């Protein structure tokens, strides 16, 4: 009889745990030690240690770093569908981690924006968080106001998985390019300091750029997100995204691809190619 009662109790506890599990993910665990040096705030001297920790928690990643694995040998995968699926599965956890942090940062900014509009008091901790993001997203702001906050919100926003993964596939030849294999560079990103990367074999005489070399896929994807969310070159992409937000429409990869005209010298042709790749591979992308 006792054993039966225990079994029934265990059953209902399991049911309750399953029912509550979606809500347990609403408040993500902050990865306090997850920031790169360039992401860490430099202007926290006015805060005590407790408030400094709170600001770092605000800025932190909300998902742990995926376990590092070496780049698969994509050339050896002969089945095209399997190659694509393996490529997406390899990079997707890193993309989701970046976007999870951006969603967390953005929601906090929206809360501060709402307080500003209502003329409510902004705490010292909130100001420290705000100016830390101004620094990280390359905005030189002396005094924060609604206009500056609106511009920051244009930058602190997600980049759809579909766009990231299709650009990575396009720029790295599905992970088979020399730069992907030797430097985890999936996006053709350049650097301009001697020895900072790999010298392109086709580099024009007199040019000094190199193709950046990263020590992990996480670093490559982090750099890509930083470029699109901060550099003036991609302001058009950010404006498209902001307009979609204002209109209450979903932020989709195809829509944002229209803002990539400056990513390649091929311009509109490049935009059409990325958009076409998203449409063609949509089923695999949404798995």
Distinctive features:
mainly alpha; three-stranded antiparallel β-sheet; 12 helices; 2% strand; globular
Your description of this structure?
It is a single chain. By secondary structure, the protein is an all-alpha fold. It contains twelve helices and three strands; from the N terminus they run αααααααβββααααα. The N and C termini lie far apart (47 Å).
What's a quick, concise take on this entry?
With 287 residues, the chain is mainly alpha-helical. It has helices at residues 2-24, 49-59, 80-117, 124-136, 146-155, 161-172, 178-183, 217-230, 235-246, 253-257, 268-280, 282-285; strands at residues 190-191, 197-198, 210-212.
List the SSEs and their pairings:
Blueprint: H1 2-24, H2 49-59, H3 80-117, H4 124-136, H5 146-155, H6 161-172, H7 178-183, E1 190-191, E2 197-198, E3 210-212, H8 217-230, H9 235-246, H10 253-257, H11 268-280, H12 282-285
Antiparallel strand pairs: 1-3, 2-3
Structural class: mainly alpha
- Biggest sheet: strand arrangement: 1-3-2
- Total of helices: 12
Largest sheet: 3 strands, antiparallel
Strand content: under 5%
Rg is: 22 Å
Apparent shape: globular
Q: What share of the residues lie within helices?
A: 55-70%
Low-confidence parts: 1-28
N- and C-termini, Cα separation: 47 Å
């Amino acid at each position: 009889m006792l054993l039966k009662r225990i079994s029934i109790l265990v059953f209902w506890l399991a049911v309750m745990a399953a029912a509550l599990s979606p809500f347990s993910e609403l408040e993500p665990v902050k990865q306090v030690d997850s920031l790169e040096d360039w992401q860490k705030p430099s202007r926290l001297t006015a805060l005590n240690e407790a408030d400094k920790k709170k600001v770092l928690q605000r800025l932190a990643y909300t998902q742990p770093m995926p376990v590092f694995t070496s780049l698969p040998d994509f050339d050896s995968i002969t089945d095209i569908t399997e190659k694509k699926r393996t490529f997406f599965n390899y990079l997707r956890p890193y993309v989701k981690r970046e976007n999870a942090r951006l969603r967390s940062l953005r929601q906090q900014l929206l809360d501060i924006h709402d307080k500003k509009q209502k003329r409510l008091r902004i705490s010292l901790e909130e100001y420290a968080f705000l100016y830390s993001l101004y620094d990280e997203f390359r905005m030189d702001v002396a005094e924060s106001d609604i206009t500056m906050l609106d511009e920051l919100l244009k930058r602190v926003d997600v980049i759809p998985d579909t766009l990231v993964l299709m650009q990575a596939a396009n720029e790295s030849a599905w992970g088979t390019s020399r730069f992907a294999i030797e430097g985890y560079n999936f996006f053709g990103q350049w650097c301009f300091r001697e020895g900072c990367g790999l010298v392109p074999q086709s580099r024009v005489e007199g040019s000094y750029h190199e193709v950046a070399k990263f020590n992990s896929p996480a670093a490559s994807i982090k750099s890509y997100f930083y470029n699109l969310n901060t550099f003036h070159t991609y302001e058009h992409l950010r404006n498209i995204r902001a307009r979609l937000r204002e209109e209450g429409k979903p932020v989709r990869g195809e829509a944002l691809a229209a803002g990539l005209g400056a990513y390649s010298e091929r311009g509109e042709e490049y935009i059409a190619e990325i958009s076409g790749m998203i449409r063609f591979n949509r089923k695999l992308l949404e798995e």
